[in-house]
Amino acid sequence: MTDQKIGFLIQARMGSTRLPGKVLMNLHGKPILAHIIDRIRELKANIPIIIITSDTIKDDLIEDFCTRHLVLFFRGDENDVLDRYYQAAEYFGLDHVVRLTGDNPLVDPENLKNLLTVHLTHDADYSSNKSEIESGLPNGVGAEIFKFSALAKSRREGIKPHHREHVNEYILENPHFFRIQYVKGVHEYSEDCKKMRLTVDTLEDYHYIEKIFILLEKYRMPTNLNSICTLTKRGLIY
Q1: Four-residue CA torsion sign, 79, 176, 6, 94
Q2: Per-residue pLDDT for 1 more than 60?
């Protein structure tokens, strides 16, 4: 794709308030983190996948998962997530960081590839196709990309607590400092599909997405957004 070094960084920790330990919960036969790694690997891109977790004792379990599955990992400050991303990117010598979170097992490979292409083509500092920017994608399917220099500037100048906790907040509050690309979904998805919640924050979310995996397997459909939208049109997911 480029001579510049890119990394897929998956943010994960065991200390979720609403659903503790969710990133390693068994979802249709494997941990949620393993599903995310599978989605990324469908891109068949020679790009490292790195789990970034905290340096607290409870997250030793995530390091154990990475060790068992031969996945790269980095550990940093639990609360200063912006610094954790910066330190990981610096450690692995990354020019661009693709930010994913450990509660989104249905990140879509086709839209992820398109986001990468747009980001690199426009030499952007920050790109997003998350639902929050009205990309036309459901919640839990999109991602963000940061150029390392944008992460560095955010870390240096983003001094408010929410800047450190949410990674992208300084950029979103100061768009005039950055080249930003907001990327639409590859296809025009139905309204019912756009409204779906494909992230795991609660036990209800977990059971909902478990049902989706069961249906995808039952109808022998690939695990992607197009398949999920098709199931929605058939009235099988609601």
Answers
A1: negative
A2: no
CA 75, distance to chain mean position in Å, is 17
By residue range, what is the domain housing residue 139?
6-189
- Whether 68 and 118 have beta carbons less than 8 Å apart is answered as no
Burial class (CB in 10 A: 0-12, 13-18, 19+), 171: buried
pTM, full prediction: 0.94
Q: Per residue in 60-94, pLDDT tens?
A: 999 999 999 999 999 999 999 999 999 999 999 99
What is the number of structural domains in the chain? Answer: 1
Instruction: Give the integer Cα–Cα distance in Å for 101 and 33.
Output: 9
Q: What is the CATH number of the domain that holds 125?
A: 3.90.550.10
Q: Would residue 221 count as lying in a domain?
A: no
